[in-house]
Specification:
Elements (H helix, E strand, L loop, with lengths): L6 E5 L6 H12 L2 E3 L1 H14 L7 H10 L2 E3 L9 E3 L2 E2 L7 H11 L2 H17 L2 E4 L3 H5 L5 E6 L2 H11 L7 H17 L12 E4 L5 H14 L7
Parallel strand pairs: 1-6, 1-7, 2-6, 7-8
Antiparallel strand pairs: 3-4, 4-5
Helix pairs in contact: 1-9, 2-4, 3-5, 7-8
Bound molecules: 2'-deoxycytidine-5'-monophosphate.
């Protein structure tokens, strides 16, 4: 799994800005951003199109192994995705895919197939990846592992600011944030857990740009002569 290219693996609970930060780090360094969630979404879409049901785990795993998924360049935080040469960027965000991608991501043959696909991206060039099992399972040898943290209060406030006025109270959102943390940390499959060698960054007092700068600095610092 060792590669001549630098690997940056970012994780942390929801509301720490990790997707935005991961994309900005990739844009700044000119690395490929691998949207691992989009891979699971593509497999869910392939299963829908093949008319498969969730019980057909092996067949969905087979689809995952055969799926040719490509990512385009990030422009302003948006990234095109192709599944078998069809542009599925918008399609994989639709409701049917949204509903199916979580149970599909719990199918062991799917995770095994996408593990190989994710490592394949890291063999082809320098990458930034964000997600649950990236630091511990997918890229355990990543030179840069960052675990973003933020207090539940700050994360709730960030979420509150994104929602339409009146849709929920700050207290309700904070309650949900704490519940989700508990669920994500205790679930059996790919629980939320930092790698032992991850650098923790507390994002409470920082802007997205400041968090991005820290990770970029860390990446440059750790970049040996032949990397990246
Ligand atoms: O981040 P997202 O909503 O696009 O992720 C889609 C689904 O894939 C979601 O149910 C979580 C799952 N997923 C996963 O199991 N492992 C990852 N590394 C990324 C996403």
């Amino acid at each position: 799994m060792s590669t001549p290219y630098q690997q940056i693996a970012i994780d942390g609970p929801a509301g720490t800005g990790k997707s935005t930060v991961a994309k900005r780090v990739a844009e700044t360094l000119g690395y490929t951003f691998v949207d691992t969630g989009a891979l699971y979404r593509c497999v869910a879409l392939a299963a829908i199109e093949a008319g498969l049901s969730l019980e057909q785990a092996e067949a969905i795993g087979e689809l995952a192994r055969g799926a040719r998924i490509r990512f385009g360049a990030l422009v302003d935080g948006r990234q095109p995705v192709w599944l078998d040469d069809v542009d599925v960027t918008a399609r994989i965000r639709e409701r049917d895919v949204d509903t199916l991608c979580s149970p599909v991501s719990a199918i062991p043959p799917v995770r095994a197939a996408l593990l190989d696909q994710q490592r394949g991206f890291a063999q082809a060039g320098p990458v930034v990846m964000e997600g649950r099992d990236i630091q511990t399972v997918v890229l355990p040898e990543a030179q840069v592992k960052v675990f973003l943290t933020a207090s539940p209060g700050v994360r709730a406030q960030r979420r509150f600011d994104q929602l339409a006025p009146g849709s929920a109270t700050l207290a309700e959102i904070e309650h949900n944030v704490r519940e989700r943390d508990e669920r994500d940390s205790s679930r059996e499959l790919a629980p939320l857990r930092p790698a032992d060698d991850a650098v923790h960054i507390d994002t409470d007092p920082l802007t997205i740009d400041q968090v991005t700068e820290r990770i970029v600095a860390l990446a440059r610092e750790r970049q040996g002569g032949s990397l990246g």
